[in-house]
Amino acid sequence: MVIFALSACDGFNKLVKSTDFELKLTRAKEYFDKEQYLKSSQLYEELIPVVKGTPKAETVYYYYTWSEYNLGDYLLGQYHFKNFTHQFPASEHAEECYFMNAYCYFLTSANYKLDQTSTKNAIKEYQSFLDAYPESKRIDTCNLLIDKLRNKLERKEYEIVKNYYKLSDWKAAIVSTKGFIKDYPSSLYTEEIYYLLIDSYFQLAENSIQAKKGERLDGAIENYVKFVDLYPKSTYLSRAESIYNSCKKLKDKL
Fold first, then answer.
1. Confidence check: pLDDT of 5 > 50
2. Domains of the chain and CATH, by start
């Protein structure tokens, strides 16, 4: 078995050193079909400059890109999928590679607690794909993946709001809750976020100088009215109503 492995390795090394590019092209596809992507990638990478400007350039680059993707290098795969669409916009594989460019970003999208640059890039690329191919059979898949990505961004923003609130940073909590409501008006978290906004205004008012109390109490009262209209059966209703009543009493004293 060891002798066979060494022989196979030696055979591949001879192939790499060979100047028979037609043979390399044939063997590269064989390695690809056998899912030996490290070998196919190495051969296709060598062939790219050789076939540049010829009818074979598209095929070589296409299989090289998929070899890199199948090796798990999604960042490099993303680059080459997108580059493929630029180099061969009329290719039968252009739509597929445009989609895969976005999908590579999707695969590198981190947990919501971490940096979300890849998540935002994935959404951007999927939306670009939908604009470029409005009749694509991949539209439903794109929309599904976009929803998953947006849910991740939504969760991250929700946790940021909660963190400001827990730290009693009322000004930051107000700004972030307003931003959340604007960006995610239909979120499952929006009901709770509205309550946090009301309470943050109230807490900020209580800790404000006399000149600013009225304006901040008004903020709590106005958002309470919106909250009751939107969520008349909310589980936060009794707590919100208690804050509202406290705000009215403080206003009367002013």
1. no
2. 168-254 (1.25.40.10)
